[in-house]
Amino acid sequence: MNLKRASLASSTSAYASTTTSSFSLFFFFTLFFSRNNAQAVVDTYGDPITAGDGEYFNIQPPVIGLDIGGGLRLGKTGYSRCSNTVLQDPNYLVTGIPVKFTNLRPVVSGDDNQILEGSPLEIEFVESEKPDCVESSKWEVFIDYHLKRAYIGIGGKDDHPGSSEPLKGTFRIKNVGLKDNVYKLEFCGTGLPSCFVVSKYDNSRDDDGGERLVLANYDPFTFIFVKKQSSIPSIKLLASPLAN
């Protein structure tokens, strides 16, 4: 009888071990192939963008001129007492404040920490450009109760009078299908049934000479990544989304 129990326990243990190993292999291969099927986000030169310190990028419109504005910066909006709202500058010659990324996707052995399309991430402005009135340069999403819109800013609720606590969620970068280096942003809120695209809202009367980045269901803000300190992209690159 004891032999039968020992044999049964041994078989059960072996089955559990095999099942665990099979699940681990399945998880690894799923993660590996999903990672390799996802496209890397690239800058204007086609170089992959990586997360972390060391490389910073300006988010700029895919074409210059055409009255579509310039890069992203911080400005005063609504009842805020300091420049803590993310705006697109109306002047196309303004390159804006560089950003960096934090990868929130699982990292496997040998991973180069590239930013992949559709992967969850955090975005923040470079620390040296952060105003003293806020503690963090990390992008957050707030609801402006007066405008009844969700917008992107930095800092906490106390820095944004008349707005909500920061919404929990992550940003994701998606290609817009025009050219490989033209993208849009999405915000996927915790507990929300779907993600929202990052669009623009012109509230010039209350905003500091720019358009807020807001959440919407349509009309995404499209852009390219220009590596910090590089010159303005060539006419060929800037015109690429309109090429055949």
Sequence-ordered SSE layout with sheet pairings:
Blueprint: H1 2-37, E1 57-60, E2 72-75, E3 85-88, E4 99-103, E5 121-125, E6 139-144, E7 149-154, E8 169-175, E9 183-189, E10 196-202, E11 211-216, E12 224-227, H2 235-239
Antiparallel strand pairs: 1-12, 2-3, 3-11, 4-5, 6-7, 8-9, 9-10, 10-11
Overview of this structure, please?
By secondary structure, this protein is of the alpha+beta class. Helix content is 17%, strand content 27%. The protein has two helices and twelve strands; from the N terminus they run H-E-E-E-E-E-E-E-E-E-E-E-E-H. Strands 2-3-11-10-9-8 form a six-stranded antiparallel beta sheet, with no helix packed on it. Strands 1-12 form a two-stranded antiparallel sheet. Strands 4-5 form a two-stranded antiparallel ribbon. The termini are far apart. The N terminus and C terminus are likely disordered.
Short description:
With 244 residues, the chain is of the alpha+beta class. Helices cover 17% and strands 27% of the residues.
List keywords for this structure.
single chain, 244 residues, alpha+beta, 6-stranded antiparallel beta sheet, two-stranded antiparallel ribbon, 2 helices, 12 strands, disordered N terminus
